[in-house]
Design goal:
InterPro entries: Beta-grasp_dom_sf (IPR012675), Mopterin_synth/thiamin_S_b (IPR016155), ThiS/MoaD-like (IPR003749). It holds the Pfam family ThiS. This is MoaD/ThiS family protein. The protein is an alpha+beta fold and 82 residues long. It has a single domain, classed as Beta-grasp domain (Ubiquitin-like (UB roll)). Helices cover 26% and strands 29% of the residues. The chain has a five-stranded mixed beta sheet. Strands 3-6 form a two-stranded antiparallel ribbon. The protein is globular. The chain starts with a strand and ends in an 8-residue tail after the last strand.
Length: 82
Amino acid sequence: MGVRILFLGPLSDLAGESEIEVAAPLDWEGLLGQVDAEIAQQLRGTRVNIACQGRVLADKTALNAQDGDEVALLPPVSGGQA
């Protein structure tokens, strides 16, 4: 089974795909090693958030995804007009 990583918004363009599946368990360092260097650089910044099983992590480095989990990489949202 493994862990499914979802690339959302412009991150999917950078990745060249919308999702990948990797071996479990997956921690912060493992995640950085599984994605492209440009995406890893963005993940290290404060603008990209990570959600695991639908919950946004307050501390990205605390990622601890297990077999069957879904990890979503959430780029910053841009505002629209109301």
